[in-house]
Amino acid sequence: VSADSPNFGGLLEIGSQATASVNADFSKSNANVSGTLSGTGTLGLVSSLAGSYVQPGPGAGQRLNIEGLNPTTGKGAVVFDIYGNQQPVTNDYLRGTSSSSAFNIEGLQLIVNGEAPFSGNGFVQKLIENGPGGTVSGFFVDASGKPIDDGGKVQINGTSKTAVIDYSFGPDNNDVALLFVENLVYSLYTYNQQAGTLDLQLGEDTNLT
After folding, report:
1. What is the pTM of this model?
2. Which residues contact 146 (CB under 8 A, 6 or more apart)?
3. Residue 120: CA atoms inside 13 Å, Cβ hemisphere, count?
4. Which of 54, 60, 61, 59 is nearest to 79 (CA)?
5. Helix, strand or coil for residue 109?
6. Which residues share a beta bridge with 13?
7. Does 117 sit behind a cis peptide bond, omega within 30 degrees of 0 on the bond before it?
8. Is 187 helix (H, G, I), strand (E, B) or coil?
9. Each residue of 86-101: pLDDT tens digit?
10. DSSP letter assigned to residue 105
11. Mean per-residue pLDDT for 33-57?
């Protein structure tokens, strides 16, 4: 779908055997996805049904703009392709379109593919980018259905690399990102007495191999 239809407010239904690539403005249209949704366009709320795939792009430097994501029935998957070490120039991600964008990712399988010339050292890859006021709830799961907790490792398909997932990344603590930090040897921490929280900053020694 490549023709802008910003005034179309109908529901986009993507069946279990169907693939839809949305590369235009359908910002007033919600989508129920049982098959595969990809593209670089704009949609309203995307509901991920059992067996579905949501994949921004594919292609280097692409993003899919949506109002929010909600796994309504069953379990689907979200697929990201990483092409290099400079997000968002070379990599794919989901971007919230409003200050109230809500991404409910509870139970959705996270699939991350490493595409050439991916090397996977010392960079951050955003998976979900929210504006101020946007929210993320729940945890992705791996291929076995096990939840990937905050700070857990994510395997990058097609490579021997892993990354650490952060569900409260960014200036508003409401983005989801992968941290490609190897040779982890130290952490800096700040204790916020009023909030009762401990803020950690992870680092790496780039002289190690």
Report:
1. 0.82
2. none
3. 21
4. 54
5. strand
6. 32
7. yes
8. strand
9. 544 456 788 998 888 9
10. -
11. 93
